[in-house]
Amino acid sequence: MVVHLINTQLISMLGGLPSKRIISLKWTWLAHLMFVVTIGLFTGVVSAGEDKVVFADARGKATTPSFSTSASNELLVAFVSSDGPSGGGQSVTVSGAGLTWTLIRRTNTQAGTAEVWQAMAPTPLTNVTVTSTQARTTYDQSLTVVAFTGAAGVGASAGASAISGASRVSLVTTAANSLVYAVGNDWDKAVARSLGTGQSLVHQWVDTGSGDTFWSQRMTDAVAAVGTTVTLNTTAPTTGRWNFTAVELVVQ
User: Fold this and answer.
1) What are phi and psi of 97, to 5 degrees?
2) What are the distances in angstroms from CA 194 to CA 186, 198, 241, 245?
3) How far is Cα of residue 179 from the mean position of the Cα atoms in its chain?
4) How far is it, in rounded angstroms, from Cα 174 to Cα 249?
5) What DSSP character marks residue 198?
6) pTM summary value
7) How far apart are CA 4 and CA 145, in angstroms?
């Protein structure tokens, strides 16, 4: 639109002018156009983005369908929520895709667990899978893996648990234009989550077989300012034991 406008104005100004004057005007407008384009290049907001989202809901070990990524240096983040014994102590280990996985945060104060793991893929991946293995086997779990472009790694993280009430967790961003995600498990209620304002569901398993709910969610938009307190939450249900883990993804 800007280029078309400049071109139209230039043509209208050229009629009847000497050739030297036309050349001078062409260079003037060219310089102006280069300035406009340069400004446009540097005023865009830089943020990470989702390349792939895959998930697996399973009893015992959970393995995603095969997937591929499109770019080098993609950050893979695994969001895992699992059922477990009533006395607590559940945990998982994430592996696969030929990558080294590290635990970002585990929240398992209440029964079950809500965990976030990460791995960096230096080259594009082709037909790989990711697996979550429980310490206490034969329980249901949900694994969601998101591959991000433009993400440098994980910044802040936080976890919360409660015996009842709507799930809620907050963190303070460490960088501008970060993405913020969370994963949770409800050990008592197989009921779909209602999310707080400005948030979107990534994946959810309302598991009527075990009476649990496993879900992941995110802030719909990137968080513009560093030092922002971000709260991810659900508004319903308001009863049931839950674990909830949030993580900030920092842009490159």
Assistant:
1) 65, 15
2) 13, 12, 16, 17
3) 6
4) 9
5) T
6) 0.83
7) 43
